[in-house]
Design goal:
Macrophage Migration Inhibitory Factor; 16% strand; alpha+beta; two-stranded parallel ribbon; 73 residues
Length: 73
């Protein structure tokens, strides 16, 4: 624990995704007081045409109380 799933539009470089995963790992370790071996991060690319159906509606709009930071759109 924890496993963090990041969904974003395609187009970010592998270096950016690696840096993001590293930063999420560091922050999770600091906030949750756990070791690096406990953290996993996956990144799922979802294109703009699919965003509403695959991300916004199920994860943001109907997140059933699990959303801790809402987007500004």
């Amino acid at each position: 624990m924890p496993h963090v799933i990041v969904k974003l539009w395609p187009g970010k470089s592998e270096a950016q995704k690696i840096r993001l995963a590293e930063q999420i790992t560091k922050d999770a370790m600091a906030v949750l007081n756990c070791g690096e071996e406990s953290v996993s991060v996956s990144i799922e690319e979802v294109g703009s045409p699919d965003w509403m159906e695959k991300v916004y509606k199920p994860d943001i709009l109907n997140g059933s109380g699990k959303l801790y930071k809402k987007p500004g759109y």
